[in-house]
Design brief:
It contains 11 helices and 13 strands. The strands form 3 sheets. A 6-stranded mixed beta sheet has the order 10-9-8-13-11-12. Pfam families: DegV (PF02645).
């Protein structure tokens, strides 16, 4: 059984990086006025930060149908029997449902993995899926192995303001209602408990209190060497580095990665956003 792995640019991978990993890639779209750019193809981190600082009128959309069809055709042409898809969660994008429809129409068996999140947890799962496929594991077992890790994962987001998320329609009604409140720094969650939608986790008064609460919340998960932790930011490297150091002190046994929130997700988080994600590492041993 030959199994292909599909991800999208919500993973923060570029098209070139995905190609080097042997992963099939779907670029989400970013619209800047009348211009449409493919995330990870002709849009990078530097460009999205420039657009955000210019307060450009940005919006996002799922990958073009033509690219979806082309990817499925390529998978079939290369002799794959099935595919596993690890994409931005259905609560944020219709990418997965559209891909499922295309695969059904084009008769490619597809195992859809609901990450309940995006960004680097999505990337980690896609890369892990590829490793499992290279070990000869079938789609059913790859999905089960990934879902075992997803059940021990979480994403918390602390935006500097909610206007980008509110404008993009990515908030639950309760979270959107906070957008007009002054002196409120909401902590937002994106996980299985929120069904992969961005919802309110807590409300505090300052960014420093929000970040400390994030650290304290993650402590409840007993993070150790079995986990990987991601500290992410949208053009806020100085504050992000301080947050990273907080996490290093709190979780000395845990692998911690410091990076940017990817371009297409940055459109919705806005400048100054902080994010933290963790996931239990995928089990690569043949014992499930």
């Amino acid at each position: 059984m030959k199994t292909a792995i599909i991800t999208d640019s919500g993973s923060s991978l570029s098209e070139q990086q995905a190609k080097e990993l042997g992963i099939f890639y779907l670029p989400l779209q970013v619209m800047n006025g009348t211009e449409t750019l493919l995330d990870g193809v002709d849009l990078d981190q530097r460009m999205i930060y420039q657009f955000l600082h210019e307060e450009a009128d940005l919006s996002t959309s799922q990958p073009p149908i033509g690219i979806l069809e082309s990817v499925v055709q390529d998978i079939k042409k290369q002799g794959y029997d099935e595919a596993v898809a690890v994409t931005i969660c259905p609560g944020l994008s219709s990418t997965m449902s559209t891909l499922q429809a295309r695969c059904k129409y084009m008769e490619l068996p597809l195992y859809a993995v609901n990450t309940f999140t995006t960004c680097f947890v999505e990337q980690y799962l896609a890369v892990s899926a590829k490793k499992l496929a290279d070990q000869g594991m079938c789609g059913t077992d790859i999905k089960a192995r990934l879902e075992a890790s997803i059940s021990h994962s979480d994403t918390l987001i602390v935006p500097d303001d909610l206007q980008h998320l509110k404008r993009g329609g990515r908030l639950t009604p309760l979270a959107a209602a906070l957008g007009g409140l002054l002196k409120i720094k909401p902590i937002l969650k994106l996980n299985a408990s929120s069904e992969g939608k961005i919802d309110v986790f807590a409300k505090v008064r300052t960014m420093s209190k929000a970040l400390q609460m994030t650290v304290d919340t993650f402590k409840e998960a007993d993070l150790d060497e079995r986990y990987i932790l991601y500290i992410l930011h949208t053009d806020a490297s100085i504050e992000g580095r301080k947050f990273y150091e907080q996490m290093k002190e709190a979780f000395p046994l845990t692998e911690i990665v410091f990076d940017h929130i990817g371009p297409v997700i940055s459109v919705h988080t806005g400048i100054g956003c902080m994010g933290a994600q963790y996931i239990r590492k995928v089990d690569f041993e043949d014992n499930l």
